[in-house]
UniProtKB/TrEMBL annotation:
Alphabetical keyword list: Carbohydrate metabolism, Cellulose degradation, Glycosidase, Hydrolase, Polysaccharide degradation
Organismal lineage: Bacteria, Bacillati, Bacillota, Clostridia, Eubacteriales
PANTHER family: GLYCOSYL HYDROLASE, LP05116P
Pfam families referenced in this protein's UniProt entry, alphabetically: Glyco_hydro_1
Magnesium is among the record's keywords: no
Organism (species): Clostridium simiarum
Family that this chain belongs to: Belongs to the glycosyl hydrolase 1 family.
Protein name: Beta-glucosidase
Catalysed transformations (reactions): Hydrolysis of terminal, non-reducing beta-D-glucosyl residues with release of beta-D-glucose
Length: 450
């Protein structure tokens, strides 16, 4: 069967500033929460150099061009533009993104810019980060600088990458900065993320910016482990916790009702001020970005302490296809998720802002990477994108995570994601088999499959 895609479909790949740029002290950049985190005692790796994309972006864009990419999603490091998160602009930092955007445009690669992918200026983190409501106006001010500067050149914007990850890993599990374990704080941070996002969407419209603005969320499709009522309830709770808590405020300016009541009862959080919900309701996005990696299967947890995230427990599926990091490969989940969001909230344009899988890449004797697993992963997910299109779900673009090997937040340089290999000793780059396949697929814009 021949699966054809619309002519204007945007195929691309993505990265994030801290994970690829390196050059952490170059040209006046301020310290970020992740610089701080990786320089705590006993950390085995850090992003000080990473792929050195900051100094090698031209070479990287050349390779993206060879892969026939139509778009590249990257994030701006707030602390390169405003080393303390506010105050004076660091011209050299802005110049870097200027050069990057110009290089992309010259190569006919559409820039897709994310304003915040987790690297918070440390000065702001020290005054409370996203827990401090004042951070919202600092973010707005930072966004305004970028909007004015890139007006007419960058047409695809995303406010925040995966608020859920920072909320859950940074404020509940305590594994990402700022290493907190506090439900009440976590819920407040989620609310501040939503307000910051909404303010910036509003600003985008007020400034009559050309193009589209959205957000990149990472909702998970959740399945109950069995047909038992208690497992079904567990799955509903898990979906509200991981997914709908972040989708509902963006799509409908509200919080899922049951979970909201439970959070108020248990944690008296989030605290909502007059006007907040109106702001969320008025901030209509032009698209919804979805970062999709895996599904979760959950069962009722009889040993729950009663917290919102442990009334359910994760279950490993017999015969499921898992990576070495325990992430389940489940391409159908992408279709299920998009259909559910459309059923719940109506039609919207989607971009798959991240999709990919971390593997241990094994080099051939000549250094080549024959990454059949990654190639197959990407292919299977693209087939699901086609299924969405066929069923009237509007997907406009797809970004492989990641453009190039980079630092995995909690698994370092062992877990590889790139279409482009990086030899981290020499920083030499080469295109993997998956990248060669993707190049041909993009050029054809169709796929033959059985
Ligand atoms: C996404 C993030 O959640 O997952 C990326 O947006 C991240 O930044 C990717 O790299 C994979 O996760 P990890 O932990 O393997 O880096």
């Amino acid at each position: 069967m021949k699966l054809e895609f619309p002519k204007d479909f945007l195929w691309g790949s993505a990265t994030a500033s801290y994970q690829v740029e390196g050059a952490v002290h170059q040209d006046g950049k301020g310290i970020t929460s992740w610089d701080e985190y990786y320089h705590m005692p006993n950390r085995e790796y850090n992003g000080d150099i990473s792929t050195d994309h900051y100094n090698r972006f031209k070479e990287d864009i050349k390779l993206m061009k060879q892969i026939n990419q139509k778009t590249y999603r990257f994030s701006v490091s707030w602390a390169r533009i405003l080393p303390n998160g506010k105050g004076e602009i660091n011209k050299k930092g802005l110049q870097f993104y200027d050069d990057l955007v110009e290089e992309l445009l010259e190569n006919n690669i559409e820039p897709n810019l994310t304003l915040y992918h987790w690297d918070m200026p440390q000065t702001l983190m020290e005054t409370g980060g996203w827990l401090n409501r004042e951070n919202i106006s600092h973010f707005e001010n930072y966004a305004k600088i970028l909007f004015s500067h890139f007006r007419g050149r960058v047409k695809l914007w995303s406010t925040i990458n995966e608020p859920a990850s920072e909320v859950i890993e940074g404020y509940i599990q305590g594994t990402h900065p700022p290493l907190r374990k506090n439900y009440s704080e976590a819920l407040q941070v989620a609310h501040h993320f939503n307000l910051a996002h909404a303010k910036v969407v509003k600003l985008f419209k007020e400034m009559n910016m050309e193009g589209k603005i959205g957000i990149a969320l990472n909702p998970l499709p959740i399945h109950p482990a069995s047909d038992k009522e208690e497992d079904k309830v567990a799955a509903e709770k898990a979906y509200a916790f991981h997914s709908d808590w972040y989708i509902a405020p963006i799509m409908a300016g509200k919080y899922p009702e049951k979970m909201f009541k439970e959070c108020q009862r248990k944690y008296k959080s989030p605290r909502i001020q007059p006007g907040d919900m109106e702001l969320l309701r008025d901030a209509k996005v032009d698209y919804l970005g979805i970062n999709y990696y895996m599904r979760k299967v959950v069962a009722h947890n009889p040993d729950s302490t009663g917290n919102i995230d442990d009334t359910f427990k994760y279950v490993r599926v017999k015969d499921g296809n898992y990576t070495d990091w325990g992430w389940e490969i489940y391409p159908e989940g992408l279709y299920e998720l998009l259909s559910k969001i459309q059923d719940d909230y109506g039609e919207i344009d989607f971009y798959i802002t991240e999709n990919g899988m971390g593997f241990y890449d094994k080099e051939q004797e000549n250094g080549e990477i024959i990454d059949n697993d990654r190639l197959d992963y990407i292919k299977q997910h693209i087939i699901q994108v086609h299924r969405c299109l066929k069923d009237g779900i509007s997907v406009k673009g797809y970004y492989v995570w990641s453009a190039i090997d980079l630092l995995s937040w909690t698994s370092g340089f062992e877990k590889r994601y790139g279409l482009i290999k990086v030899d981290f000793k020499t920083l030499e780059r080469s295109i993997k088999k998956s990248g060669v396949w993707y190049a041909k697929f993009i050029a054809d814009n169709f796929m033959e499959c059985n």
